[in-house]
Amino acid sequence: MKALDRYILTSFLRPFTITFFVMVFFLLMQFVWKYVDDLVGKGVEWYYILEMLLYISATTVPLALPISVLLSSLMTFGSFGEHNELAAMRASGISLLRLFRVLIITVTIIAIGGFLFANYVMPVSQFKGKSLLRNITKMKPALNIRPGIFYDGIEGYSIKIAEKGGPEKNELKNIIIYDHTDNLGNIKVTTADEGIMDITPDNRFMIIRLKNGQTYEEHQPTNREDKERKPFSSTQFEYAVIRFNLEEFDSEDLRQETRKDFNMLNNAQLVEAIDSLRVVVLDQRANFHKTMSERYGYILDTATRPPQLKDTVIEIIPDVLANFNERKRKMVTENALRIARSNRSYYDQAKTNYHWRERNITRHVLEWHKKLSLSFACLVMFFIGAPLGAIIRKGGMGMPVVISVVVFILFYVMATAFEKMGRELTWQAIPAMWLPPLLFLPIGLLLTYKTANDAEFMSLEFWIKIWRKLTNSKRQS
């Protein structure tokens, strides 16, 4: 390796290393801000929290790499331009692409390493970290009851609160508790203005002491009159106590593994999972088609007719009800409505099931392409950051940081929006993951080409002159 390549590589790796760890820490803070209030000071040992943070920090690496490459390349060539090193290199007859060569190879290695990390290390980290978090919240379910979100971790109940405060985070406001222990749906609900949540010393029960509330329960009708009346009972109370059994949450090993989600699989496992899920969908569609065909299709079988009626032509009146006498018309109508409602319900359930399974398959496909697209984004960000650094000719943590943050926010928002559209099945999975980096790639290639050919509009002074002309014309007018 030539001295120039070593110098460029060293100048790039220093800010890259610092930026990478800063971005990992910054992305990790999103998780900390979400869960630290519920984990710290709740009796969870510190080494479990530290282990979980280590696992979660590993999951941020694929997203931290593109912005680290963008910022470090921008800082490197911005510093070269600020200290006239870039001008000296270009004056010596060295082209811009020749200066980029060693970093293109380096960023390619980083991109490949990022993919291998995302494919082999990150699924394990996701699995270990999420398993640890789930087991902690199962041991102490009060930790996972979050304001504004229904919590259904306790079997037979669904709990929602508006606020959670107090020194121990056990003072609740605007409580809603659905009782599903009878498996009859949302027919029994308890609401209260406030309450206090405690765990018994033996960790066997969670007790919520409610204040100023009401209990509403719908009673299951036994005859037609009760169905029309829809009987219910409602009780108001000043104080009430509800006890939840937590014995099912007992676990001595917080590292006990749980089931794997789609983001805990490598690409080979994702392919196998996608194939299996698609086979299930095809089987269910075939069964649905067979069931509906049997319900609505018919075959006119003349072989079973009596011999005297075999050659008889039976005329069917187009008005279906006119084929029956008045006594049977009501019975036919009621049976038809009942069958239609039953089939409609069956169809709606099948539609919901297919939609859920399609979304599940799409999430697996998105995860497969996400590992590749984020690695490819490292190269795209380099071809944006390096020429921008040569244009602005500013090093350090000032202008490069601002530009990098703006560019990466645009990329991140676009990638998140397209991924969400892919998850909601409003966009195809492959373009949803690849369109953001592919949209930024022409910008990077254009910047690189124009900067390498010293295009006038790529000069910072060119835009400064235009800005001054615009401001001067406004002042004169």
When the domains are counted, the total is: 3
What share of residues are in beta strands?
Answer: 5-15%
What helical percentage do the residues reach?
Answer: 55-70%
Q: The biggest beta sheet, please?
A: 6 strands, antiparallel
Uncertain residue ranges: none
DSSP summary: helix tally: 11
Count of β-strands? 6
Q: Using the alpha-carbon principal axes, give the shape.
A: extended
Structural class: alpha+beta
Distance between the termini: 59 Å
Cα gyration radius (Å): 33 Å
Averaged pLDDT:
79
For this entry, what is the oligomeric state of its chains?
A: single chain
Sequence of secondary-structure elements: HHHHHEEEEEHEHHHHH
Structural overview:
- There is one protein chain.
- The chain is of the alpha+beta class and 477 residues long.
- The protein folds into 3 domains: 3-139 and 369-476, no CATH class; 155-245, no CATH class; 266-361.
- Helix content is 61%, strand content 12%.
- It contains 11 helices and 6 strands.
- It has helices spanning 3-39, 46-59, 61-82, 85-91, 96-139, 224-229, 267-296, 326-392, 399-423, 429-452, 460-476; strands spanning 157-160, 163-165, 171-179, 188-199, 205-218, 232-245.
- Strands 1, 2, 3, 4, 5 and 6 form a 6-stranded antiparallel sheet that branches.
- Strand 4 and strand 5 form a beta hairpin.
- Helix 2 (46-59) packs antiparallel against helix 5, helix 3 runs antiparallel to helix 9 (399-423) and helix 5 crosses helix 8 (326-392).
- It is extended and about 100 Å long.
- The model has no long low-confidence stretch (mean pLDDT 79).
